[in-house]
Design brief:
The complex is a heterodimer of chains A (about 200) and B (about 240). With about 200 residues, chain A is mainly alpha-helical. Chain A has nine helices and no strands. Helix content of chain B is about 30%, strand content about 25%. The chains are: A mainly alpha (about 200), B alpha+beta (about 240). Chains A and B meet through helix 2, helix 3, helix 4, helix 6 and helix 7 of A and helix 2, helix 4 and helix 5 of B.
Chain lengths: ~200, ~240
């Protein structure tokens, strides 16, 4: 299997500059996939707040968030040649990789801490901050807040605990004191309602 | 579609939000690439995830870009080729007559590395993530008469990951054997059994240059060369 990409294409950034932000994100990622570092720099400018924001939300610690953000962008660069626009938007691909890395980091930290300090560590380290309401209060993005308002209270709690706090549905079930199947269903139903709200359909 | 798969369909939402624990994530990832419904749902729900991420956008520290671009300048990108080979049944039947010849011709020259063989009963909690994330991962899909198998191989890591769905029980004292076919011979790569009709394991292999993968059923102590019928086959 040969490397088909030995060339740098420095001139790739002219076109994307005039397109909409969504198109530019996708165009700069495609150019980055052809080895264009300058395009990747622009892709960074377009997505850094998204990536850092979601990672910070999940891991909470700014120093750790910075570290995970750096890992994520290097990973995005490495994987860029495989980005397939027919399987989702550039933004979705980017957010997916960022969120996954953040979640994996907190879970490995959690299991390390559990091993080191099994007797002292509470299962959830910060009870006052586990409710979905706190998460939602901090959301200043109107479009997202409006969409979450369209969910039932129980769906909203389940979706935000899973996404913004990186909880598994089993943890969500414990935190909300409902059966696991119920937590799973609330997450899925909430996502389906959000899909309808935003008109997302592949 | 058995009951097990029916349950898996309902995990698409939790999966897309990374709300599955490691074990269920593995199970779902073995299932969903073969399921059009789940692929569609995961894609949609990931778009929703991106919108939720937009809700918490935060500017990163300003010096971060310089560090990242410096590392990017020293990081090689993966190949754009996914090299997926789906072997359909007709093709596979044709090849069944070919591979045994390759195997027979090669058998005499094969140096069997016994250390490669490991019986994976219960202790198959190997982490397949590094192989999936490897920049040079090569994916080969094998469709058999029963269920499906997917092989992911990384030359750089010298590792192979095996994913399977709806596989038949190999029988008492028997196990599935994965073989890699090289230009000059056939070598055992791994032995595996199935758990709930499924397998998801990662195995270390020696420096290899496979041109095809083959799967047979062998005694669970392993065989130095294939003795069973070729059940799954795929060329890279």
């Amino acid at each position: 299997m040969g490397d088909v990409n030995p060339f740098r294409r420095r001139g790739d950034t002219d076109g994307p500059a005039q397109a909409s932000e969504v198109d530019r994100t996708s165009a700069t990622l495609a150019a980055a996939g052809r080895g264009n570092e300058e395009a990747f720099g622009e892709f960074y400018d377009l997505t850094a707040s998204l990536v850092y924001g979601v990672i910070l939300k999940v891991v909470r610690d700014p120093a750790m968030a910075e570290e995970v953000t750096q890992e994520t962008f290097v990973e995005l660069w490495r994987l860029a040649p495989r980005y397939d626009a027919t399987r989702g938007s550039a933004k979705s691909w980017t957010a997916t990789i960022a969120h996954r890395r953040a979640v994996d980091r907190v879970r490995s930290e959690q299991s390390r801490r559990n091993r080191e300090d099994r007797d002292h560590e509470r299962r959830t380290e910060n009870e006052s901050d586990t409710t979905a309401e706190v998460v939602i209060d901090r959301l200043d993005h109107t479009r997202v807040r409006n969409a979450l308002d369209a969910l039932s209270d129980t769906q909203r709690e389940a979706v935000t605990l899973a996404y913004y706090q990186g909880r598994t549905y089993r943890e969500v079930a414990l935190l909300l004191d409902v059966p696991e199947g119920t937590a799973k269903t609330r997450i899925r139903d909430g996502l389906i309602r959000l899909r309808d709200h935003f008109g997302v359909d592949s | 579609m058995n009951a097990n798969n029916h349950d898996l369909h309902h995990l698409a939402g939790a999966y897309a939000l990374d709300a599955l624990d490691a074990e269920e994530r593995r199970a779902f990832e073995a299932h969903y690439p073969t399921c059009d419904i789940c692929i569609g749902e995961v894609e949609d729900f990931r778009e929703i995830g991106a919108i939720l991420a937009e809700g918490v956008e935060t500017a990163p520290p300003s010096d971060l870009k310089t560090q990242i671009m410096a590392e990017v300048g020293q990081t090689r990108q993966i190949s754009p080729l996914e090299s997926e080979t789906v072997v359909d049944l007709a093709e596979q039947r044709q090849r069944k007559s070919r591979l045994p010849l390759v195997l027979a011709a090669a058998a005499a020259a094969v140096v069997v590395v016994i250390g490669l063989l490991s019986v994976l009963n219960g202790s198959s909690e190997n982490d397949t993530e590094p192989v999936l994330a490897a920049p040079d991962a090569v994916v080969t899909n094998l469709e058999g008469e029963v269920g499906s198998l997917r092989i992911v191989w990384s030359d750089e890591l010298d590792m192979v990951a095996i994913f399977g769905n709806d596989l038949a029980d190999p029988g008492v004292g028997m196990a599935y054997a994965l073989w890699f076919v090289e230009a000059d011979g056939v070598t055992p790569a791994a032995l595996f059994t199935v758990d709930d009709d499924m397998v998801r394991i990662a195995e270390t292999v020696d420096d290899i240059d496979p041109i095809a993968w083959g799967v047979t059923i062998e005694p669970d102590t392993g065989s130095p060369q294939p003795t069973g019928e070729i059940l799954y086959l795929g060329e890279l």
